[in-house]
Amino acid sequence: MRITARAPIRLEFGGGGTDIPSYSDRYGGCVLSATINKYTYASLRPTHNTELKLITTETNDSLLFKDAKDLAYNGDQDLIKAVIKRMKINYGCEIAFRSEAPPDSGLGNGATAAVTMVGVFNQLRYENKLNDYEIAETAYDTMKYELDIQGGKQAFYSSVFGGFNFIEFQENGFTRVNKVKIKPQTIAELEKHLLLVYLGKREKVESSQAILKEQEVNYGQGEKLSILEQLKGLAQDMKDRLEHNDLTSFAQKMDLAFQIKKKLNPSITSPKIEDISEVAKKNGALATRIQGSGAGGHLLVFCDWNKEHVISKALLEKGVSCIPFSFVNQGLEVWEGND
């Protein structure tokens, strides 16, 4: 028997930063996001002993351990090890993982990978199976407490639930996922207007975690509070605009949210990102927004009517390319098959 799981990565439109627990646990937060057709995959095959074989699909390299007690974090497939430890896996198996998105790209790829891993192991639970909310929380706890990777919760919930979601992070620590009441034609029109631009890896490897740790420590302090309140309000407004098929106002608020987010944390942008944004707007973009903690990765561009090809060409001349994508409604999926 073989078990396979996949989960989609997400695009974030507004509210990012308000899902950081140091803020949301005290003041509440909300994020508007949607999943796209780029996935992480995990395949698991149980064995009849306690040995654990961890396989890197891209290179077909593998690690072999006698049992879970031998697992140690050393930068080699640490996420798989962390999920095994967090979920207290006490049986042998072979497990392979791959992702359709590059690492450290701002699309929540790490969170999606954790969700996929938790989902595939959860399938073998005969008792106390995790529900969707518990899968998201377990994946988040694995990243934060096992690997000391800081960040918000939004990407975990987006990947589990899939589709267009308005996710509320309440003061008591509870998370509520609300489906956005968006018409199919609005989704199709929004998809046509958007370009997903790959900027390349972050300029500094440590920048992502540096940004996230700064958020975790400082997002509940001083003048940042008023900025975060503005970001929450804009996320709510953007949800309302989507539900009313008002994409022009949606784009305006998306751009405004990015400008405000840069005031909250200037390190999410860079001269290169600002230059790319300026070129896009000169050629007909109504809005740009960096994804995730920024400093590289992906930039989301909202194009004016029939300007997608013009902007795409101009950006290609600047040395960056657009990644084809479409929105998907399905979140985490797990299925069983035979070899």
Domain module tally: 2
Mean pLDDT over all positions: 90
CATH topology of the largest domain: Ribosomal Protein S5, domain 2
Number of helices: 11
Q: Helical percent range?
A: 25-40%
Percent of sequence in beta strands: 25-35%
The largest pleated sheet is described as: 8 strands, mixed
Give the overall shape, derived from the CA principal axes. globular
Low-confidence parts lasting 5 or more residues at pLDDT below 50?
Answer: none
What is the chain-wise order of helices and strands? EHEEEHEHHHEEHEHHHHEEHEE
Give the N-to-C terminal Cα separation: 7 Å
- Write down the Rg: 20 Å
CATH class of the largest domain: Alpha Beta
- Secondary structure: number of strands: 12
